[in-house]
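Look over this one:
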Amino acid sequence: MAILRTLFIILFVFFTSSVWAENGVTDRKIVLGQSAAFTGPAAQLGIQLHAGAKAYFDHVNSIGGVFGRKIEIITRDDKYEADLAVANTKELIESDDVFALFAYVGTPTSNAALPIFTKAKVPFFAPFSGASSLREPFNKLIFNVRAGYNEETEHLVDRLVNTGLKNIAVFYQNDAYGKAGLAGVERALKKLNLPIIETATVERNSVDVTKAVDKMIAKKPDVIIQVSAYASCSAFIKEMHKRDYSGQFYNLSFVGSQALSDALGNQGPGVVISQVVPFPWSNVNAVVAEYAKVMNKAGIKDLNFSSLEGYIDARIFVEGLRRAGQNLTREKFIAALESMNMRNYDGGGFDVNFSPTNHNASKFVDMTVIGKDGKFRD
């Protein structure tokens, strides 16, 4: 009888625990998946974003995790290519059995993953993209932390026009990201009854900008808004300078600010970049001071906008896990995130406003410029 009783208890514990079992969740860990560029021309986007997120996850793990569970993040390199993102997403969901997908880099890669994670009902948290395709129509599985490209381009265009610069052109990446940014610029300029005087494109993961430079230099715009990644944007700026172009360059945050500054070297001063997170070198915001402390603890001395964004993404994600409770499920996690807003969550200076009908946390946009020393000014 004692043996039967023991067997019954074991079976009962196994059965009751399996009722609460969720993909990617055990008593000891929560497994996330990230597909991003870790090699190739856009590699620094994935590397820096991941570094900030992992620093925060490691910090949380070092103090016991979330309800005793450590957070593990599996990374897969998609080189910023949609077909690789598709393969990675399938493997992360089907083979790695992740709880959620976290911080994908890019619009074309995120768009390619969208039907896969939607069918599998896997949360898709904090893509490094401001595209409307990830915001409209509303998808209950997608949570955007950063401001959208419409907010970003409107802020940027308003700044330009207010300084008297109205002769505006756009250099953009010939894919979903570039076209989303272009549409945002067109939308913002239309409100002001202003045209785009010229456009030129570059292919994703390419630095072949010769045709774009030929086309753009002929119009000599006052300002060129760039909607691409750092490798192509830096190549374009350098070639335009060789042609004695003296106008200004404005970039969206996705460019990879630090990587762009590093690539430009002494040609960087004066280049403007919009940002969707606070200034990483100021202790005015509590979250930035916390970020600097945790990054230092992780042995990472080089702070930047992309790693701060990854850090903020991870911080919000962990808060969602805590609010979901010990018996973690995807449904509880989604409901927990939807409960987070300015009134009940201290973002440390980065406001978060989720709700059951709104999964876009922030509309924060700021402007920065690369200084003579290669460092940023806000």
User: Anything to note?
Assistant: The chain has two domains: 17-147+284-363, 149-275. DSSP finds twelve helices and twelve strands in the chain.
